Amino acid sequence: MELSNKPYLTTRSINPENQETPIKFLKTETIPTTYFFRRNHFQYPTILNDNFFLPITGQVKMPIVFQYSQIVQMETTAIKCFLECAGNKRSKFNPPVFGEQWEEGAISQGEWKGISLSCLLEITGIAADAREVVFVGYDYGKQEDIEHHIPFARSLPLEKAIHPDTIIAYEYNGRPLTYKHGFPFRLIVPGWYGMASVKWLKKIILIDDTFKGPFQTDDYVYYPKLSDPYPVTMVNVNSLIQKPLDYEIIDEGVTLIEGIAWSGESEVTNVDISFNGQQWVDAILIGETLDKTNRWTKWKFHWNAPKGEHTIYCRASDSKGRKQPLEPMWNKKGYGYNAITKIRVKVK
């Protein structure tokens, strides 16, 4: 029997299904749907005929129910970007925090195709007192401390919602969205953590107030030790080392260190490597030099590895002047981990 040499998703939970991308073994710019990480709060919803209609109501001049067939015939927008779960790398927090113990694979990247939400809102019109846009998904269930079933729902400030890159997506990498990734419609909010990109869109509601759903005001909120709570929004500057693997044994001599770096609403401008956490040298950024906002950047470094045990550090910086910190901002829900990346290797 021929053994497969393909990687697998890493299971974090089965019900609801939460699986990690084998990110250290995939070196492509786009992640195939098969390997795209899966993040769910509830069981998968049932797909019915109703799923192919998308109502936009609330503080609009003309409420409209859009049909799937209408939306796919409108002017399209294609965006290549990554999505990262806000809990990515949660397992690295010390002291530990509760929640899915993601390692480094709750991130994937690809090309999304759909229609800018702003185009649909041009048709409905936006009332003068609209402040936020609420996105409600078909997935629902029981949440802690809430007796009745609730849907997954989030809001965006109007300014972010009408940004041309905020899209209602119906394709990924040139094919229709799969059932497990939001078919037939999902929101894509480049640069923000993945909770903002609501899957299985059921309805969109413009409101003149601040949305106070549990996934807005309880979950996806930073609760730091020494400051007031504030919402999780833009992705922190971050990186990972894909090769070598942590605790790998490698041969003496020139070896390739490589990985990816990313940041929300900005682009990576520099990746530094260190072997003692104090002296840093530049890695080589790979690929296009044009705007890579909201896309990860591949990097590499050739190291003349001496015998012994070593720690390799990696630190990314972005166009907003942000840099990975030595220590993460600890918060009780375990969001936004982005401390300097490090692995240990033994050279023989």
From TrEMBL:
Q: Which UniProt keywords apply?
A: Metal-binding, Molybdenum, Oxidoreductase
User: What cofactor does this one take?
Assistant: Mo-molybdopterin
Q: Does the keyword Oxidoreductase apply?
A: yes
Q: Is the keyword Oxidoreductase in the record? A: yes
Top-level taxon of origin: Bacteria
Q: Which residue ranges does the record assign to the Oxidoreductase molybdopterin-binding domain?
A: 41-213
Sequence ranges assigned to domain Moybdenum cofactor oxidoreductase dimerisation in this UniProt record: 232-347
Q: What's an example Gene Ontology biological process for this entry?
A: sulfur compound metabolic process
GO MF terms listed in the record are:
heme binding; molybdenum ion binding; molybdopterin cofactor binding; sulfite oxidase activity
Q: Which PANTHER family match?
A: SULFITE OXIDASE, MITOCHONDRIAL (PTHR19372:SF7), SULFITE REDUCTASE (PTHR19372)
What this protein is called in its record is: Sulfite oxidase
**In which organism is this protein found?**
Anaerobacillus alkaliphilus
